[in-house]
Amino acid sequence: MYNLRILRPFRYSWFAQTLATGLTNAPPHRLLASQHKRRPQLGAAPSEQLDQLKTDYFERNGELSNEDWQRVRHTLTDTYKYINGHNVDAVILGMCNTGEQLPVAKSYLRYLQTQGLEPNAATLGRLLRVYNAAYHIRALSDEEQSEIVHICDMLQGNHEILDASSCEHLIHGLVATNHHWQRAVRFLEMMKVTTAPSISAYSALASKAFKSDQPELAWRLLEEMLETRKLPKCEVYLAHLDSSARDVKTFGSQVERLLLFLERHDIQLSDNVAQQLVALAQRLPNQLQVTSTHLEHMGKCAACQQHLQHVAISDTQFAELRGSFLDKVLIRKDVFQKSTPEEVARFKQFVEQTAPYDCVIDGLNVAYSTGTKKPPQQLAKLLATVVRYFRDRRKRVLVLGRQHMRSWSKPAMQYIQSNASVFLTNDLSHDDPFLLYATLRSGQETDFFSRDLMRSHAFLLGTELKSTFRRWQQEHQYSLVTQTQTGQIIVKEPIRYLLSAHKVNNVWHIPCTETYTPNPTDRFEVPEKWLCLKTA
To answer: For the segment 179-204, what is each residue's pLDDT rounded down to a tens digit?
Structure first.
């Protein structure tokens, strides 16, 4: 056991004095510990020596002698030019990156005490992270939790506002406690003063809220995350499932709530969470049935043999999407910086006169899709080939392009103008808003051809309309895969069934991904793994 006396000498008064060397003449509420925002650059020296250092000292998972710690310190400061006496302590504790190494980290704090050295905010923040790592593999003792609270009190000190990095350390420390974790909510709010809270901070606090039977707080945090386009970590869903399984009577409804959340935000589950659902189904077969499955031809579930829901949006949803697009995307200051109100008006009039279309093609996007440095003759031929693809299918086509395309190969451009309506914008204009406006204005059956994922336009529409836009986009977007050596094109056609979690005849189908990623692709690809799930 480790005595709290280790930490008591580290009072806030000299703690602030340590920082004062780097923050002279700072105002009274200067953000704390801002000088450690830049991570130490460890890659500038031989990595073999660093690996050897970790093997010799840090993998012991026990206490080191003062001589050992002095050797570690000198090795780091002498070998790595970015490590000095001011940041070496934080670097050392940063190397204690597993829960088993908590004794090592506390051993280093004792060494600092014997040397009369005072750990700064960055060092204590890293120590809180080691406590958090230990919390994830075992229950922390009351004494260890008291140590965490004491460190948090010191870090907070007399400052009304802490910097984002310090707040995040505090959050990860406090969630490892049983009775003080709700203090972390304040630090999450404090982070918002200077930056958007990180995925890690949100996920740690939401997980703790679920574990502590505070589900409404957890759901509020999750909705906040998605509003800022941050995807929750797997630990949040696992905590929700574990806490839900405590009450068999409400278990089914709590799983339904999770699945509705996944559906609303178009989230795929990681294999880790999927396996937990399968395990819970085996444990509670009367409340939950889960089968791992895949999709057969035309979106048919291999397990229940039902076809997934068609991705099409309703006429009402389409009308709302079309009505909102002009105000929220086309008529915006940044569009007019690249275009003019006169050009927008001219384009709208052109569409009114020539619509409806079966497909609207982004001419430059198509031409450049196999390379931007090809001669104009090849670019024009590729675009003409795509126009021919739709004309052979008796489709009415609009091609959007730029004025400089007039100088492209005349035979190819003549073919395009003879077989499609053509509108050329100024060379500085953005094509995407024009493309989407023409497609939406033309009607529910119109498709468009572009490799652009349209992320920014979807975001501008807001949370609710973004989901509608994504479904409409999935149903209507064609794109070029490649062009063969013989000049033939391979076209990716739209996927007509839902790729997100949804229910068909009281059976849920949930797409899965192998691992969690904070930035999932916006491409419309059919996941290989699915869950076929039914709640009681």
So the answer is: 999 999 999 999 999 999 999 999 99
CA 8 to chain centre: 40
Q: Which two tokens stand for residue 107?
A: 């051993």
| Cα–Cα dist 122/83, whole Å | 14
The 10 Å CB-count burial string (b at 16+, else e) for 360-392 is bbbbbbbbbbeeeeeeeebbbbbbbbbbbbbbe
For 309, phi then psi, to 5°, come to -65, 145
What does the block give as tokens for 480?
């070029």
Q: Across the chain, what does the average pLDDT equal?
A: 87
| Token digits of residue 322 | 């079309």
Provide Rg for the chain, Cα atoms.
29
Distance separating alpha carbons of residues 218 and 473, to the nearest angstrom: 31
Pairing of strands 489-492, 477-483: antiparallel
CB-based contact 243:257 (threshold 8 Å): no
pTM attached to this predicted model: 0.82
Residue 455 tokens, joined:
């992320």
Token digits of residue 146: 């008291």
Token digits for 133? 């790592």
Which residues are registered as beta bridge partners of 11? Answer: none
Closest residue by Cα to residue 412 from 374, 372, 355, 367 = 367
CB 138 within 8 A of CB 101: no
Contact 358, 396 (CB under 8 A): yes
Tokens linked to 436: 């989407």
